[in-house]
Write a structure and sequence with these properties.
single chain; 349 residues; mainly beta; Jelly Rolls; 12-stranded mixed sheet; 1 helix; DUF2793 domain-containing protein; DUF2793
């Protein structure tokens, strides 16, 4: 039988051994060196010399060109024991934690290499101050995340399997979605928002050929019911037909002192309003866009005429959600109502 163990070369206590404490203590010293191996650092900067005031148990990896007390000890693990340097030769497969770089490495017989869990150097999941899982394989909990360049630019790449899948950035409040941007179910870039995480509105869509749409932007084209009418001066005309609509415009209650319904504004903002008025005859008239039955914001009118005529008025005005629009008349005229006749268009800017 050998006098020492195979892997760590620990001396056996033999039956005929005198001073049995000697090999026993030697074995303990070696175990204390290599078990839970934590290396303070690798001495690589010339001159590669031992530190001047080591503490008991300090362990270092001797570099390739040692000098002084470490001369000829390159590649060995050096430990300060009992006021002197002792040395241990590492075997392939040994692992050590390098305290100066906070890195776990393994010895391959020549070099100490950083440990990766897979042969290709990848990790199945990483949690940085957070718990990763099978879906969120990278989880980070911090005040900020930094992705910087290495000499030139930097790209953050989000790849999906096919066009029908999703590749987006999702912004949350309390783990409930509030905004999402990216390729959601198609190859068109979109921005969506939600107030509760369940009901979503698409604010912007950019098609693969570069066309931009805003499907939630308030837009309307509305008119009174098709036909002819001669409203009285100071009377109002509301709306009956909506020919184009998106973003929440709708008809409300009947207008006061007139016919038709109020056109309800869906959101606060600046609006471009365009009024088109078509008359068959006129004794001198005016038709205005009125807000909330109190404020005239644009006016179209014409002189007395026995012939058909057309007048338009355009303005930009600030409107609030819940405001309502109607037409206010002055003078006397016979109007043509309906699409492409007397109608109102509104677009939120």
């Amino acid at each position: 039988m050998s006098d020492q163990t195979n892997n760590l070369a620990l001396p056996y206590i033999l039956p005929s051994q005198a001073q049995k404490h000697v090999p026993h203590n030697e074995a303990l010293r070696r175990l204390d060196t290599v078990v839970q191996l934590a290396i303070l650092g690798e001495r690589q900067s010339p001159p590669e010399t031992a530190p001047g005031t080591p503490a008991e148990g300090d362990r270092y990896l001797v570099g390739a060109d040692p000098q002084g007390e470490w001369l000829g000890r390159q590649g060995l693990v050096s430990v300060w024991q009992d006021g002197a340097w002792a040395y241990q030769s590492p075997n392939p497969g040994w692992r050590a934690f390098f305290l100066d770089t906070r890195q776990l490495r393994a010895f391959d017989g020549t070099n100490w290499n950083a440990i990766s869990l897979d042969a290709d150097g990848s990790l199945p999941m990483i949690g940085v101050n957070a718990a990763a899982d099978a879906v969120n394989r990278l989880a980070v909990a911090s005040e900020a995340s930094l992705f910087s360049h290495e000499g030139q630019g930097h790209q953050l790449k989000i790849n999906k399997a096919d066009s029908s899948q999703t590749g987006t950035l999702l912004f949350q409040t309390g783990w409930s979605g509030r905004a999402e941007m990216g390729l959601a179910g198609s190859d068109a870039f979109s921005i969506k928002v939600s107030g509760n995480g369940d009901d979503w509105s698409t604010a912007l869509i950019v098609s693969p050929d570069g066309l931009v749409r805003t499907p939630s932007r308030p837009i309307v084209r509305a008119s009174p019911a098709a036909g002819t009418s001669s409203p009285p001066s100071a009377g109002r005309t509301g709306f009956t037909d909506i020919h184009v609509e998106q973003g929440g415009f709708e008809l409300g209650a009947a207008v006061p002192s007139g016919t038709g319904a109020r056109l309800i504004v869906p959101a606060d903002g600046l609006y471009l309003l365009s009024l088109s008025s078509s008359t068959l005859t006129s004794a001198g008239h005016g038709v205005a866009i009125e807000v909330n039955g109190t404020t005239v914001v644009a006016n179209a009118g014409g002189p007395a005429s026995a012939s058909p005529a057309r007048q338009t008025a355009t303005t930009i005005v600030s409107l609030n959600r819940g405001d309502w629009l109607a037409l206010l008349h002055s003078g006397a005229a016979q109007y043509e109502f309906g699409a492409a006749k007397t109608e109102l268009c509104a677009v939120m800017l």
